[in-house]
Amino acid sequence: MLAVNGLKLYYKTLKGYVKAVDDVSFDLKDNEILGLAGESGCGKSTLVNGLILLKPPLNYFGGNVILDNELLPINDFEKMNDFRYKRLSIIPQYAMDALNPTRKIGVYIKEVLKSKGINYDSIHDRLIERLKFVNLPERVLKMYPIELSGGMKQRLVMVISTLLNPSLLIADEVTSALDVSSQKSVCLMIKGFKDEGIVKSLIFVTHDLSVLYQIADRIMVMYAGKVAEIGTTQQIIENPVHPYTKMLLSSLPEVGIRYTDTRLKGIPGRPPQLLNPPKGCRFKDRCPFYSSQCDSEPPKVQVEDNHIAYCWKVNKND
Ligand SMILES: Nc1ncnc2c1ncn2[C@@H]1O[C@H](COP(=O)(O)OP(=O)(O)OP(=O)(O)O)[C@@H](O)[C@H]1O
């Protein structure tokens, strides 16, 4: 179980602080897949990287993160070493480039395990099993990354990320560089990690809501460093209440029907600069329902069970 409370993560730049994650709260139960959605630049990667790999120029400004009843020392990169891979793990956005090009895969995995104080031989059987799970032959261990296709490299990173059976697995935009059929099999494999009990829970990050429809139990929509709306997948897809979620959904031609290679058509305008974000609702400049009350911080509205939105224009009868 994960609980994130009031998390603030800002990038330090020469011009000031970029408020990329600003007072974000959510939780994640065991056996649950949370989809994290929103346009490019809304803070998804910053949030998930901040949970596991927080380092300059990204800085911690407040809040806390609790995993399985233990406070994570997210602000201490060294201390987080005891948690990475073991308790929480990430398949990064550019997973295909994450492998060391100068090492054979098996040697690289040995080095990663050694750095975690784990003996390769003690985990060898699990490694072979896990390779099978993602349809990779054992011989990849004797190969260099350059000898593998992009999809194979990605699946290999999935194996390494889950090798120590972490409680929480984060998948950051893992499907964006893949063709449509590989996207589907990668999604199913990642869901399989949870269904097989290899990991307890999952955060699946994507800008594409139609991917989340297939695998997520709940969806959290972020906008400009803030949470816009959280609900079950059904609530978000069938009864979105935040104007941003509605626009995000309407920009997807085939949401919920099948995987699609159609790009997001885009919502008019663009997210605000997070160096000096607008006061009040950060979506107000693009929102068709703007009124002066939106110049104040939007309230947290409990729409129904499990369904929350941060917006002045939402009421429970929407
Ligand atoms: N190293 C950095 N220094 C300063 N600002 C940054 C840095 N990295 C990201 N940002 C800013 O932080 C904000 C959030 O970016 P982030 O990459 O987390 O968004 P995202 O939703 O994951 O988008 P994408 O899918 O394109 O990665 C953006 O305004 C971005 O410009």
TrEMBL record:
Pfam families found in the cross-reference section: ABC_tran (PF00005), oligo_HPY (PF08352)
Which domain of life does the protein's organism represent?
A: Bacteria
Question: Is Amino-acid biosynthesis among this UniProt entry's keywords?
Answer: no
Q: Which GO terms describe its biological process?
A: peptide transport
Keywords of the record, alphabetical order, are: ATP-binding, Nucleotide-binding, Transport
ABC transporter domain location is 4-249
Q: Keyword Transport: yes or no?
A: yes
A GO molecular function annotation here is: ATP binding
What InterPro entries does this protein's entry cite?
A: AAA+_ATPase (IPR003593), ABC_transporter-like_ATP-bd (IPR003439), ABC_transporter-like_CS (IPR017871), Oligopep_ABC_C (IPR013563), P-loop_NTPase (IPR027417)
NCBIfam families given for it? oligo_HPY
Q: Which PANTHER family is this protein grouped with?
A: MALTOSE ABC TRANSPORTER, ATP-BINDING PROTEIN, OLIGOPEPTIDE/DIPEPTIDE ABC TRANSPORTER, ATPASE SUBUNIT
Task: Please give the name of this protein.
Answer: ABC-type dipeptide/oligopeptide/nickel transport system, ATPase component
Instruction: Specify the species.
Output: Thermosipho africanus (strain TCF52B)
